[in-house]
Structures are given as structure tokens and as C-alpha cells.
Design goal:
By secondary structure, this protein is of the alpha+beta class. The protein has a single domain, classed as Winged helix-like DNA-binding domain superfamily/Winged helix DNA-binding domain (Arc Repressor Mutant, subunit A, Orthogonal Bundle), CATH 1.10.10. The chain has helices at residues 2-19, 24-33, 40-52, 75-96, 101-108, and strands at residues 22-23, 56-63, 66-73. It has a three-stranded antiparallel sheet. Strand 2 and strand 3 (66-73) form a beta hairpin. Helix 1 (2-19) crosses helix 4.
């Protein structure tokens, strides 16, 4: 299950980073709002992975005397998010509407 939800976390991060710059604390709170129990030990490696793979970029700034790293989506990340949206829509339609595409294709054969 953990591996499955890790993909959802990545999509959430990319989605929010496409809307505006995000920092770890803010996105952690947002993810918790969606019911994910995620801590810094899970989130920061995920952000680092998304940055290393070219899907996010970061810039540091100082806010109220504390260093903060803001993440933005890259063009590569936007492309990945767009592709994921198509796949997610297809999957959601199949699961939510209980529309078994595989069974439907077999019937047509």
C-alpha cells in the first residue's frame, strides 16, 4: 500500500508546485489535510527525488530569519503531470464508474 500511496503523494506535490512555489512544511500540511500521515523523513527525500529527476527545481530564501527552500514544477514536471492526469482520469473513470475496460475489450473480440 505504501508504494501505491507514494505515487499519489508525488502527484499531489507536482500539482501544487504547478500552482505556486511550495515549501516542505506547507506541502506536508496540505498532504495531511488530504489524510496522508507524512513526516519530514518521507517528504524531504520525495522532494529531493523529484528535483533530482528534473521534475522540480528549488530556490532558497530566508523567511523570518529561517532558511526555506521553495520548489516549483519544471517543464519536464508539467509534462509528467499532464500525462499522469490522462492516466488518472482513465483509471478513476474505470474504478468509480465500475467500467471494466478489459472485460469490454474481450466482449468485442
Amino acid at each position: 500500500m505504501r508504494h501505491l500511496f507514494a505515487g499519489f503523494l508525488r502527484l499531489h506535490v507536482l500539482y501544487h508546485a504547478a500552482k505556486e512555489p511550495i515549501c516542505g512544511t506547507e506541502i506536508m500540511e496540505e498532504l495531511q489535510h488530504h489524510g496522508y500521515k507524512i513526516g519530514p523523513g518521507t517528504l524531504y527525500p520525495l522532494l529531493a527525488e523529484l528535483e533530482a529527476s528534473g521534475n522540480l527545481t528549488s530556490a532558497g530564501e530566508v523567511v523570518e530569519g529561517r532558511r526555506r527552500k521553495n520548489f516549483r514544477i519544471t517543464p519536464r514536471g508539467k509534462k509528467l503531470l499532464a500525462e499522469a492526469r490522462v492516466k488518472l482520469h482513465e483509471l478513476a473513470s474505470e474504478i468509480i464508474d465500475d467500467r471494466d475496460g478489459m472485460a469490454e475489450r474481450k466482449k468485442r473480440e
